[in-house]
Write a structure and sequence with these properties.
By secondary structure, the protein is an alpha/beta fold. The protein has a single domain, classed as NAD(P)-binding Rossmann-like Domain (Rossmann fold). Helices cover 48% and strands 12% of the residues. The protein contains ten helices and seven strands. The protein has a seven-stranded parallel beta sheet with strand order 3-2-1-4-5-6-7, with helices on both faces. Helix 1 links the parallel strand 1 and strand 2. Helix 1 packs across helix 7, helix 3 packs parallel to helix 4 and helix 5 packs across helix 9. It is globular, with a radius of gyration of 18 Å. The termini are far apart.
C-alpha cells in the first residue's frame, strides 16, 4: 500500500521510536500529527519533517486533553488513517523493592492511557471502515524480563488488548498491528522508573548498542506496509526470544474467524 497523502498520528513522538516513525512516514508521503508532553521537543521533531505537520501536545493520562486532541486530529485533514500508541515509560527495579505506586504509574501510562486514546479514536475509524492501529509493546511484552515486572505487566496487557481488538475489528476494515521492539538506542533506560518512582538517569550498554531508531522505524513501516499483524524488531537473543513467543498467524486467523462466524453478534444478543 502507499502512505502518500495518509495521516499518521503518533503519541510519544518527541524522541526515540516515535520521532523516528514520524520521519519515516513523512518520507513516504504521509501527513504527520505529533503528540507528547514536551511541546518544544515536538516542534524540533516537526522541523525534520517536510510534509504537513500538526503538533498536539498533551499528557496521555489527561482524559479531557486527550479527547480534545482526538477531535482536533480528526478535523485537521478530514480523518486519521494511522494511529500509533507509543507513549510509555520503562522500569529498572526488583519487584520486592518496588512501591505499588510505581506499578500504578507505569500501568496507567503504558496500558490504560493507550487503551483510552484508542477507544476515543475507534468510532471514527469504524465509521470510515478503514485505518491502521499500531501498539508499541516490547519483547518484554512477550517474555518476562527481570527488573521490569510493572513494565512487563503493562506491555503484556497491551498485546492482549490489541489481539482481542484486532479480532473485533476484523470485519470493520481496520487493521491492528503489535510491535515488539528489543533494544533500540533511545532514552528508554535513562528515563525508566526505579523502585521509589524516581528516574534512573543512566542508560544500559545493551540499549546504547541497540538498533538505531531510524532503522527500527523503517522495519516497522515496511512490516505495516506488508500487513504483518505482529512485528518483532530485535536482534540476537532478543529476536530469538520474540520469535519463540510469536503468536502464530493461524491462531490469529482462527480468532478472527469466530467474529466472521457471528460470535460477537451471538454474545450481544444473549446480553
Amino acid at each position: 500500500m502507499s502512505f502518500e497523502g495518509k495521516t499518521a498520528w503518533i503519541t510519544g513522538a518527541s524522541s526515540g521510536i516515535g520521532a523516528a516513525l514520524a520521519r519515516e512516514w513523512a518520507q513516504r508521503g504521509a501527513r504527520i500529527i505529533l503528540s507528547g508532553r514536551d511541546e518544544a521537543r515536538l516542534v524540533a521533531v516537526a522541523g525534520d519533517i517536510e510534509t504537513a505537520t500538526l503538533i498536539l501536545p498533551f499528557d496521555v493520562r489527561d482524559d479531557e486533553a486527550m479527547q480534545a486532541a482526538t477531535g482536533k486530529a480528526i478535523a485537521w485533514q478530514g480523518g486519521v488513517d494511522i494511529f500509533v500508541a507509543n507513549a510509555g515509560v520503562s522500569q529498572r527495579s526488583a519487584a520486592i523493592d518496588t512501591d505499588i505506586s510505581v506499578y500504578r504509574e507505569i500501568i496507567d501510562i503504558d496500558l490504560t492511557a493507550q487503551i483510552a486514546a484508542t477507544q476515543a479514536l475507534l468510532p471514527h475509524l469504524v465509521e470510515r471502515q478503514s485505518g491502521k492501529l499500531l501498539f508499541i509493546s516490547s519483547i518484554a511484552g512477550k517474555v518476562g524480563v527481570p527488573m521490569r515486572t510493572a513494565y512487563c505487566a503493562a506491555k503484556f496487557g497491551l498485546i492482549g488488548y490489541a489481539d482481542a481488538l484486532r479480532a473485533e475489528l476484523s470485519q470493520e476494515g481496520v487493521s491492528v498491528h503489535v510491535v515488539c521492539p528489543g533494544s533500540v538506542a533511545t532514552d528508554v533506560s535513562r528515563n525508566a522508573l526505579t523502585a521509589d518512582g524516581s528516574k534512573r538517569g543512566r542508560s544500559d550498554q545493551v540499549i546504547d548498542n541497540g538498533i538505531a531508531p531510524d532503522e527500527a522505524a523503517r522495519r516497522i513501516v515496511d512490516a505495516v506496509e506488508a500487513n504483518q499483524r505482529e512485528i518483532i524488531v530485535a536482534e540476537g537473543m532478543e529476536e530469538a526470544m520474540g520469535e519463540m513467543r510469536r503468536t502464530p498467524d493461524q491462531l490469529l486467523d482462527q480468532v478472527a474467524g469466530m467474529v466472521a462466524a457471528g460470535y460477537m453478534d451471538k454474545m450481544k444478543a444473549e446480553g
